[in-house]
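Notes from the 1:1 (GR / supervisor)

We went over the backlog. Supervisor wanted to see one worked example end to end before approving the batch request, so GR pasted a single chain during the call. The sequence is below; no edits were made to it. Supervisor asked that the structure be written out right there so they could see what the output format looks like.
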Amino acid sequence: MASSSGISSTALAHIAVGVIVERRRAKSPWLDFIWRPAAVLAGTPEAAPWTPLSEAQDTTLFYAGDAVIELYRTETANYRSNLASNAPSLWVIMRPNASRNAYKILAVTADPAEGEALTDAGSDLVEPVPMPAAIAEAINHFIAQHHVERPFFKRRRERAASPAPRRGSDGARTEE
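Structure output shown during the call:
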């Protein structure tokens, strides 16, 4: 995924992850199943994508496949605020797939701004999952290497070239 700042940049670090997805039988006459990302694993297991991991009553967990978290120098402030939150998260982005598997993994991101921005993307499934400690440690290390504190500059509005006519309390124009 591209950096959410709109600036084209190259990822400086990559973290390989595996995605676990839950399929739950729906209690609806219109849907058979409800799918959602359940977890992200640090590293990738030696399992084929869409391998069932466990089954209990109406719920099945699958290893859906692998993905790569890309880390960008321009997003370190976002990663830092994610890690400082009470529940650091990773956002899993999945797209409906017409093949026998219901979804295709598009990306996993540690950038909360990017994760939230992707929730508007039509039929894509975007869900946060808890961030494993090993991934949090790798991101913390990346922040320590690449974060540059950027001062906040409040933008000032420029005054209009010609002042707009004022209106009095009765709505009539008044001259200055």
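Supervisor's comment: The CA atoms of residues 92 and 113 lie 13 Å apart.
Batch request approved.
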